[in-house]
C-alpha cells in the first residue's frame, strides 16, 4: 500500500518536472531562433573600431536579416567570421563590395596607398582605427558568406546608447 | 441571442485553430533545429563529383556537428558555401587543411602540376571529377568558416544507398 502511494506521488512529481522542462526547452528554442535569425545582443571589444566602438567592450544589437537578403552595403558595421580563425568573429566596417576598387593605406607598410579590386562574392572589411586593426589590408577580401550580421544599435554603455557613429 | 451564440462558436473554432497552429509551429521549430545543427537531407547535383556522386542528383545526409567541433579532415566530403556566390552551396572534397602544401593539376591550363600552400584558417577543396569542377584550383583556398556540414550517407538513389565512396 505504501509502495503504491509512493509510486503515484513520484509519478505526479515526474509529470510536473517534465512539464516545466518542456516549457523551459520551448522558451530556449524560441530565444535561440530569435538570436540566430532576427536579432541578438553581442559583446564586442578591442581597439580596432575606435572611436566608433569602445575598446573595453560594448554590447550591441546585431540583426541577421539583411545579410540573408543581400542588403549589406558599403559603410555597414558587420559581424563577420574571421577567415583566419573560424571560431572567432570580428566586428568591422565594409569598405568595398564585389567589383569595387578599394584604395587603402597601411601605416605599418609605409606611406604608400595601395589599390585592390574586389573579386565576385567578396567584400573588403576594415576597422575604423587603421592603426590597430587586423583586417582586409592584411588578409585580403573576405567571402560574403562569412558575414554573420549587421550591427544597428548599441545598448551598453548607457551613455553611448544609440546607433554607432558613421 | 444569435450573435452571442455565433461569437462563442467562433471563439471555440479560433481556439482550436490556435492550438493546432501552435503544434505545427513547435514541430517546424524542432525540425529546423535538427536540420541546422544535427543532420539534414540535401539534394546535390552536377558533374563535379563524378563518380562519387551522380550527375543528375543524389539525396545525401549532411551532419553539422563535425565542423563546429573542428573535426573536418583531409578527404572529407563537405557542403561549403561558395566564396563567389553566397547564396549557393557546393559539395566538394577537402584536399588540404591549413598549413598543407597542395599539388594540383588543372587540365584546362596544360600539363603542368602546380603547388599551393594553404593559409591559416583555410581549406583546399576539389571536386573528384577534375575535368568538370570549379573549385580551389580556380578560386583559391576557402576559409574554414564557410563549411556548412559533412556528407556522411547517401539515401537516394536507393541502389547507391550507403557511404559515398572514397
UniProtKB/TrEMBL annotation, chain B:
PANTHER family: MITOCHONDRIAL INNER MEMBRANE PROTEASE SUBUNIT 1, PROTEASE FAMILY S26 MITOCHONDRIAL INNER MEMBRANE PROTEASE-RELATED. GO terms for cellular component: mitochondrial inner membrane peptidase complex. The active site is at 48, 92. One of its GO terms (biological process) is protein processing involved in protein targeting to mitochondrion. Belongs to the peptidase S26 family. IMP1 subfamily. This is Peptidase S26 domain-containing protein. It is found in: Mitochondrion inner membrane. Heterodimer of 2 subunits, IMP1A/B and IMP12. It comes from the Eukaryota.
Amino acid at each position: 500500500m505504501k509502495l503504491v502511494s509512493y509510486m503515484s506521488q513520484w509519478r505526479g512529481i515526474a509529470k510536473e518536472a517534465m512539464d516545466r522542462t518542456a516549457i523551459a526547452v520551448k522558451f530556449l528554442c524560441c530565444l535561440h531562433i530569435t538570436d540566430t535569425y532576427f536579432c541578438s545582443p553581442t559583446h564586442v571589444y578591442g581597439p580596432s573600431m575606435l572611436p566608433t566602438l569602445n575598446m573595453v567592450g560594448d554590447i550591441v544589437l546585431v540583426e541577421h536579416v539583411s545579410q540573408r537578403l543581400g542588403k549589406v552595403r558599403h559603410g555597414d558595421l558587420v559581424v563577420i567570421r574571421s577567415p583566419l580563425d573560424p571560431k572567432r568573429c570580428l566586428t568591422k566596417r565594409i569598405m568595398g563590395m564585389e567589383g569595387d576598387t578599394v584604395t587603402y593605406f597601411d601605416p605599418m607598410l609605409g606611406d604608400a596607398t595601395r589599390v585592390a579590386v574586389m573579386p565576385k562574392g567578396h567584400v573588403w572589411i576594415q576597422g575604423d582605427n587603421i592603426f590597430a586593426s587586423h583586417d582586409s589590408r592584411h588578409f585580403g577580401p573576405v567571402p560574403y558568406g562569412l558575414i554573420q550580421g549587421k550591427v544597428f544599435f548599441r545598448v551598453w554603455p548607457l551613455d553611448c546608447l544609440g546607433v554607432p557613429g558613421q
